[in-house]
């Protein structure tokens, strides 16, 4: 079982077939069952995966949960499915709530095939929590997701370990979501808090309005500086002359081409980040960029047949990083180039595949 590879394939299917997954049955067949299989369970073995699971007692007549995942004769995970077009919320989990109290399961998943909300009984024993402790989005697989999901695989499943980590995961998820919102659009509370701690004197409406412009810019500067610091550290093995030469080659391509190709600072930033990631395994001198109207290709040894990644930054709506599983490109939507660091495992794995000197 290769969880990394299987989730990549599922992610590709999600992007390509999303428009055809309007019904619950389509989501089950195309995404949910393959997801369960990716975790190492035999979906055709009823001792491991029970479809249309029905508890014997304490449940409304005829009410069933879509799947029960078992190990060693015990029901460990309950799964309730909804159509992929449906936005998930706790009101869709009423069957899970009822089944949770009458089975041995302490884990439940509410899913539309693309998003997977993981629940447990952290707050009150044998009563499913109202809020998930972890949310997995198949359309945007992060490096951290692989490590978390490995705990749910048949091979590594340990209820005690999962429950122990669940509380921290829930708090971490809430903190990350909160910080993302604050970083992207600082709230009045954050702006007021910073102003009170920085400004000497009374906070007038004019001063607060000024801080509302300064704070977002300051956050951007901090993030950019952190990225640059990591880049500098990772690339220190590369000579300054070579670095300057690379920069000149990129900028020269940008200035001299007459075919409408424009290499942006964002593409250069993405290229540098991939160089930094690659520096953990090979010399960053072996990483090149070739720009085109459609995307900027990141190449190994300046060989167009050895593509490490593609930077799809030319679209106005959504930006993507394309990684490769053999010849198949998997697109990862991003909002900021710093999110490329979350794709480190994909990039390193690809470089190892391409490195013929390995």
From TrEMBL:
Pfam families reported in the protein's UniProt record: HSDR_N_2
BP term (GO), one: methylation
Keyword set includes Nuclease: yes
Keyword Signal carried by entry: no
Keywords recorded for this protein, A-Z: Endonuclease, Hydrolase, Methyltransferase, Nuclease, Transferase
Residue span, Type I restriction enzyme R protein N-terminal domain: 35-122
InterPro entries hit by this protein: HSDR_N, UCP035009_HsdR_All3000-type
Domain of life of the source: Bacteria
GO molecular function, a single term: methyltransferase activity
Stated name of the protein: Restriction endonuclease or methylase
Organism the protein comes from: Iodidimonas nitroreducens
């Amino acid at each position: 079982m290769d969880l990394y590879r299987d989730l990549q394939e599922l992610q590709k299917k999600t992007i390509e077939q999303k428009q055809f997954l309007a019904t619950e049955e389509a989501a089950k067949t195309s995404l949910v069952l393959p997801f369960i299989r990716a975790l190492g369970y035999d979906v055709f073995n009823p001792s491991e995966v029970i479809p249309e699971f029905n508890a014997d007692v304490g449940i409304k007549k005829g009410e069933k949960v879509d799947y029960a995942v078992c190990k060693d004769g015990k029901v460990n995970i309950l799964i309730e499915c909804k159509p992929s077009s449906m936005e998930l919320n706790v009101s869709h989990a009423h069957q899970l709530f009822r089944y949770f109290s009458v089975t041995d399961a302490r884990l439940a998943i509410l899913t539309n095939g693309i998003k997977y909300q993981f629940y447990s009984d952290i707050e009150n024993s044998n009563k499913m929590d109202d809020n998930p402790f972890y949310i997995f989005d198949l359309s945007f697989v992060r490096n951290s997701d692989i490590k978390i999901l490995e705990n749910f695989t048949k091979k590594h499943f340990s209820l005690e370990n999962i429950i122990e980590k669940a509380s921290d995961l829930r708090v971490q998820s809430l903190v990350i979501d909160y910080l993302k919102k604050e970083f992207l659009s600082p709230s009045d509370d954050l702006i007021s808090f910073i102003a009170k701690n920085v400004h000497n004197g009374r906070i007038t409406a004019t001063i607060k309005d000024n801080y509302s412009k300064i704070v977002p810019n300051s956050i951007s500067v901090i993030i950019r500086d952190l990225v640059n610091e990591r880049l500098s550290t990772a690339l220190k093995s590369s000579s300054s002359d070579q670095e300057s030469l690379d920069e000149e080659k990129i900028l020269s391509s940008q200035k001299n081409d007459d075919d409408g190709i424009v290499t942006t600072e964002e593409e250069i930033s993405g290229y540098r980040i991939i160089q930094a990631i690659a520096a953990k395994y090979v010399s960053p001198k072996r990483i090149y960029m070739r720009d085109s109207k459609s995307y900027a290709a990141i190449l190994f040894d300046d060989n167009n047949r050895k593509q490490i990644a593609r930077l799809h930054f030319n679209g106005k709506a959504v930006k993507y990083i394309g990684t490769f599983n053999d010849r198949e490109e998997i697109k990862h939507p991003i909002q900021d180039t710093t999110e490329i660091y979350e794709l480190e495992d994909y990039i390193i794995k690809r470089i190892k595949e391409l490195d013929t000197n390995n």
